[in-house]
Amino acid sequence: MDIQAIAREFLDARANRKEIEVPPSARDSAFDVNSAYAVEAEIARLRVASGHKVSGRKVGYANKAMWRMLKLDTLVWASMYDDTVHEKAELSAGGFHSAKIEPEIAFKLKSAVPAGADAAGALAAVEWMALGFEIIDCPFPDWKFQPADFVAAWGLHAALLLGEPRHVDPAAIPELAEMLASFKLRLSKNGDLVEEGSGKNVLRSPALCLAELAAAASRRGDPLRPGELISTGQLTSAQAIASGEVWRAEADGLPVAALELRLT
User: Fold this and answer.
1) Using CA atoms in the order 174, 199, 247, 93, what is the torsion angle rounded to 10 degrees?
2) Rounded distance, CA 131 to CA 231, Å?
3) CB 102 within 8 A of CB 134
4) Could you give the angle at which helices 206-219 and 173-182 cross, rounded to 10 degrees?
5) Which of 9, 86, 15, 62 minimizes the C-alpha distance to 238?
6) How do residues 39-80 score in pLDDT, each as one tens digit?
7) What is the model's pLDDT at position 30?
8) Is residue 75 within 8 Å of residue 37, measured between CB atoms?
9) Among 7, 16, 141, 215, which is disulfide-ready with 42 (CB 3.0 to 4.6 Å)?
């Protein structure tokens, strides 16, 4: 398949809120995850050439039960950009095609994650962490796609809204590693509880998810780099959003500030 043509197709769909009626994997059985990463890299190249910067990566399929079902051997990822990562409390819902919201833990890297790192080893590479809301937006009809399509479509990444950063104290890393595996997350809309989640929902801990991402990215020859922002996967199920709503995420058992987002 023409990787450059597919990359341009996805860029056009995002820019013009267009639907891609037939995902690449349904057009050609040879379009696999390797092909998708080539598309994702071409999208990043074109965006950088147009003046944007890659801010980091978002994770997808951070659930081993999904790996077995979808015949994956690890999680997948896609790039985030300087115009998709925000530190603000409001966001327009009008610029999306079919958007949903996911609460996540985000990490800012200060150094490379060591090979074979456990949760504490991964956290040693982290400068700060924060609650985040990732907005995902699907260009495919009825949200039906394969993992390769997910990667090629920017990992469905539309925006990441960051809460207040919490510095990671090296002396507190052992305790923090335990907290990340056990904390509870409350997601509410307009003051009403929608769902409760947990750090266990992303490979048993967001820190372990970071370690898995580092290992997988290194195997692919695209290692994580200092300064990257990593969004580690959904702590609850994704929820559809609409203008006028106020969403709030609160962590119980983890020292991060609550996060609130108003959709205009």
Assistant:
1) 110
2) 9
3) yes
4) 100
5) 62
6) 999 999 999 999 999 999 999 999 998 998 999 999 999 999
7) 95
8) no
9) 7
CA dihedral 100, 75, 79, 177 (to 10 degrees): 90
Which residue type occupies 52? Answer: H
Q: What is the mean pLDDT of residues 254-259?
A: 98
What DSSP string runs through 169-234?
-GGGHHHHHHHHHH-EEEEEETTEEEEEEEGGGTTTSHHHHHHHHHHHHHHTT----TT-EEE---
Using the 8-state DSSP alphabet, how is residue 124 labeled? T
List domains and CATH numbers for the chain: 3-263 (3.90.850.10)
Residue 56, both tokens: 């980091």
Q: How confident is the model at residue 93 (pLDDT cuts 50, 70, 90)?
A: confident
**CB-based contacts of 197, cutoff 8 Å, min separation 6:** 103, 184, 185, 187, 234, 235, 236
Note the pLDDT of residue 74.
Answer: 96
- Helix/strand/coil for 118: coil
Q: Are 87 and 162 in contact (CB under 8 A)?
A: yes
Q: How confident is the model at residue 147 (pLDDT cuts 50, 70, 90)?
A: very high
